[in-house]
Amino acid sequence: MDEATPYALHAQAARRALADSGLDRSVIDGFASAGLGTLAPVEVAEYLGLRPTWVDSTSVGGATWEVMAAHAADAIAAGHADAVLLVYGSTARADLKAGRRTANLSFGARGPLQFEVPYGHTLIAKYAMAARRHMHQYGTTLEQLAEIAVQARANAAANPEAMYREPITVDDVLGGPMIADPFTKLHCCIRSDGGCAVLLVAEDHVPDLAAPPVWVLGCGTAVSHTTMSEWDDFTVSPAAVSGRLAFERAGVRPDEIDLAEIYDAFTYMTLVTLEDLGFCAKGEGGAFVGKGRLLRDGALPVNTDGGGLAACHPGMRGLFLLVEAVRQLRGEYAPDRQVRKPDGRPPQLAVASGTGGWFCSSGTVVLGRG
């Protein structure tokens, strides 16, 4: 798809989401997009031929789409919109190959960041620093972090759309080139192109849907910091707040969740988010992720498509978390790809939790099978 433009990927994803829903494009009166154009989402809506009366362009990094889903659900519940399309597309990999951009991501040097940029404190360095703090404070090991990458790759093996499906070992992860201590290459997400879309609609449309509905049961959002000096605790992400709110509003507990889709630009993100969502106690994430717990047939399947570490990561990946959770809840995958409960049923409850910036923002959405 190197010849596709970001706009084309937006359009492809939007068409597929509509086809999946079975609804006509005329029902769409709400639109949310971020990351493309000077006046996103106005430019993207125009490209798609839409004239929405409700729009959202909230941009908080990888958590953007969970935050937008929360906004859309609230708008629909309040009667301000009837059908909201969330859509994203990026040619991050193709742009790099063509020389249209470099491998570096810069958020600029204005505002609070001016106090960090002169010292070369890059985005990945911030995550690496946080990981080192967790290792120092709780004894988390590099081998435990590497297990997350190994299990993500194992989940990707059954996903024909994943970029990397070959198995890897803990030794492979530990022996790779160093990117930012303690992260070697395989501790870090891949770079890909990709497009994605989700359509949220009012309950009145359920009888007309082409597939079983998946319900938004509860959402939570939170922001934490921009400068590292204002981050109270490097071992706690804003998912500790967004997760608590989402579970409370959904009326469910973490131990009732059948699968989790978690933003994983780096292995440490998965570990600390699992802690902060309440799947294990703070500091116990290293032990929790062992023994194949995160595999599709594990005790808590996590990133069942392979995640950003193996499947795809075109930039703000949070929308892909929602799509994978929905497809798993519908039970529409082949046997080697589908999560099943111990009794053989498809999963009933899922959580998607996105992270933005360097743990600056979080959006968590609890979803339930119709």
TrEMBL record:
Q: Does the keyword Translocase apply?
A: no
Q: Tell me which UniProt keywords the record has, alphabetically.
A: Transferase
Q: Which Pfam families match?
A: Thiolase_C_1
In the UniProt record, does the keyword Magnesium occur? no
Residues making up the signal peptide according to the UniProt record: none
> Which molecular function GO terms apply here?
acyltransferase activity, transferring groups other than amino-acyl groups
Q: Where is the Thiolase C-terminal domain?
A: 220-369
Which Gene3D superfamilies does its entry note? 3.40.47.10
InterPro entries, A to Z: Thiolase (IPR002155), Thiolase-like (IPR016039), Thiolase_C_2 (IPR055140)
**Superkingdom assignment:** Bacteria
Name-wise, this protein is Acetyl-CoA acetyltransferase
For this protein's source organism, the top of the classification is:
Bacteria, Bacillati, Actinomycetota, Actinomycetes, Kitasatosporales
